[in-house]
Each structure stands twice: as C-alpha cells, then as structure tokens.
Amino acid sequence: VVECTSAVIQALVAFRKHYPEHRREEIDKCIHKADNFILSIQRSDGSWYGSWGICFTHGAWSAVRGLVAAGRTFKNCPAIRKACGFLLSKEVPSGGWGESYLSCRDKVYTELEGRRPHVVNTSWAMLALIDAGQ
C-alpha cells in the first residue's frame, strides 16, 4: 500500500511540474490526502510494512520518497526522522542492511541469518537516507 501511494504522489508531482495549471486544486488535494495516508500508516517504530519488496526496508524507502516528493523534509517531518532512526537501528555491523523474506510473512522485521547484509536491502536503506537528506 505504501509503495503505491508513494508512486502516486511522485507521479502527480511530476505531472504538476509539466502541467502546472491543469486541475491544480484536485491534484494538490490528492497529493495532500496521499501524504497524510502515508503518515497515518507509519508504525510506532518508524517503519512501514512494504508489500512490493522485502519488506520494512522497502516500505521505509517508498514512504520517505513519497513524503519528500510531497514537500516534507527531515527537518519539518517527524515521520521522516523516525524512519531514518528505524533504518539506522537495523544497520548490521558490516555497515549494510539485510532483511529476511520472513519479515513479509511474519510482519515483524527479521534480519538475514548471521546478520548478513544484502545489496538490495542496503540500496533501499541508503536511498531512503539520501532522499531524507541524511
């Protein structure tokens, strides 16, 4: 859910850039509602459950991208700061991130066996932190 909502925000922001006067009020209202929805589904630990990738790492990246596209920043958005804190808390000793597919099944963040990093999880976490300005 968070991934699709984020993608809608990003698409509408891009559309608005190219066609700034076309249905401006409707588009702004939709972006605002989608932005608020992303905020409303954030978990208390700062994460979002992701459905399109494994799982909380992908959800956090998607959420941060959407919130930033909607105009939020690390400075003005507690949810982005909380998401960054969540991601940083999951960094493994080698400096990467490694989330197991079991997170999707169990709906609880689960590290890869042996606290191993994975290139894809590491990429998503780093992209989220970069998008947040961190």
Automatic annotation (TrEMBL):
Pfam families: SQHop_cyclase_C. Transmembrane segments: none annotated. GO terms for cellular component: lipid droplet. One of its GO terms (molecular function) is intramolecular transferase activity. GO terms for biological process: triterpenoid biosynthetic process. Residues 23-134 form the Squalene cyclase C-terminal domain. Keywords: Repeat. This is Squalene cyclase C-terminal domain-containing protein.
